[in-house]
Amino acid sequence: MGSRSMVSLRLVAGLLVFCVGIALVLMPDSVPALPLAHLFVLATSFILILVGLTAAARTLGTDLSSTEAPVVERPVDLPRPGSDVEEQLEVLSVSSVHAVSGTSRTNWIDVSTQFRTRLHRLTVSVLVDHGGLTETEATEAVDAGVWSENPHAVAFFTGEYPAETPLSVRTRIELVSGTPSVATQAGHVIDELRAITQEDQRPRRQELLDALETEGPETTNEGGEDER
Amino acid sequence: MRSKQRDQRRLTKEVKMNADSPASTDNTSGTDSGGSSDDSNSVDSSDNSDEPVQRRVVEKHSPDRWRLAAGAALISAGVGTLFAQPALLLVTVVCVGALALRWTTFPPEPVVAIERSFSTDSPAPGDVVEVKTTLTNLGESTLPDCRFVDLVPDELSVVAGSPRAATHLPPGARCTLEYEVELRRGSHRFEGVHAVVSDRAATSEHVYLLASEDEFRCRPDPESLPAAPLRRLTTPYTGRMATEKPGEGLEFHSVREYRRGDALRRIDWNQYASTRELSTLQFRTEQAAAVVLVADVRPVAYVRSQPAENHAADRCLDAVSRLFVTLLDADHRVGIATLGPDFWLAPNDGSEHRNRALDALASEPALSPSRFGDDFPLRLRAHQLLQRMPATTQVFLCTPLVDDAVEVPVQLLESAGHEVVVVSPDPTSMETAGGVVTALERRHRISRIHGYGVPVVDVGPEESLDVVLARIGWSR
Q1: Contact residues, A window 176-205, toward B, CB-based 8 Å cutoff
Q2: If you count Cβ atoms within 10 Å of the first and of the last residue's Cβ in chain A, which end, N or C, has fewer?
């Protein structure tokens, strides 16, 4: 709607200028009668230069478009399994929910909630299948943050970095880079899950249960859950 | 015997050149195709060499460089006026002239005839076929700058030559695009030629779709598997599958007390020699199974990890074709159904039924390598299958298991008494974060399906079905 009214405005302005030009050509006697003729010419010249420069700059500043021929030499592009996950990670890659606004903010919160639920369910199932835990034990281990030694992966679900977070990581978060984005934390969770499913890196059930028993409320609130 | 049948199948391959190309797409009902081997491996080719093809404008485009001319005209007019330089005003006139040319010249409309020819009339999967597409300018005006791209079917790869050309085409002149494609199973449709036509000054470009439809139908020639992963459910018909029921057969079942009327050949004479008591040998009764092979061809199944590999739906259809001939060779009754666009071939046996199924795999849009039609609610499709299938039918569900929804038909069919086996080509790859999540979710899905008492044959990306069946020891 806005662009259409802009076009009609331009059209009217163009027609007006055209009519004035034709009138001046046909009736040159009227030119001396114009008040402030020199100033008028000067202003017109500047406007012409300005508009011309703007048009040229806009053209040079944008990629030149051209017709694109279809790629037919290879089979048609189909989605990769997991491309939806990549798209969600892309949305969550902004530093925090405060960095987006409007519909993007609502979208960020929706995607974050869905993705967290999805990864939580997946982590529990991986701990059941590969760690020998029951579903309840696995859920408790994830919620208590004892399922992994990776502080970023733990913080993805708990929203807090565990007390035993290495000093180097803590320093980097507090002094240098700030709390990593949800996508970064999710990436650590996915790396941990990949490692757990590999034969030699499976968690031992008893170790997880012991950790669950000894888990206290001692955590440091480093954020990572801006929207909570 | 199998090789003999295969030879017979090869002999029955006939080619049908059909002048009416759209006729090849008539069979979209989704029900029993009822085809025969006559129109299986074929090329439906349209002969448009003398008549101009239909064209449709897809897009009109004006190259952005003309905006520069407009900017230059304005700047030179402004500077010329400011410094009272008539020469600069002349530059403006030149630029305005160029812009006027832009608005007054138009690309000519292409009046083109298209003739497409193929190096073979009986294409088979794996063949490399040479395609020649000749475009003739039948119009009165020259096409000063035109680019043509032959629209190769979605799932075919160009292995040599090029399906595109840029040329100048005077009236009556011809341009030929020559290239080679490697064929695959199923129906492959050439939609037409993508043409970009520009005027002499290249002020604007018009993009056209020139309609010229041809179709390859490649009938599969699937290899039998060493064994199919059958479960226990059988039909009342005699067959070759040993059951738990004692009776006539080949495989020993048990020994029972002799009853009057038992055949002499079934008496256990060794037992009689040692104990002087008559007993009768019993064998496992051999009966035929009825199996419906359900292919998951929903839109979600059209995924692949690498551009060069077959997509998951195609791998499912490949598994269906191999299981079909394997079960049919073992004298079972076999049918084919789909999740997604509807197709139904009721379980049956015999060579006519085999031809009908293989023709369907070559020509049915629902079984095509290219995505066809819309999705259909899974629960409704499962209920539809339950209504269509006889009670004693096993189900082989060939699905990549890429979503949770596919568990619905598995549960419904298994709980209705149809023994289900899931054959699942794995399309996932652990190379990316998304791939890891999808692969692990799929593994957990397999665990859940095992929990319903349903076996899952998981076929890895680099594996073939027969190797997997041999590895898991399915030898029955």
Answers
A1: 186-187, 190, 193-194, 197
A2: N
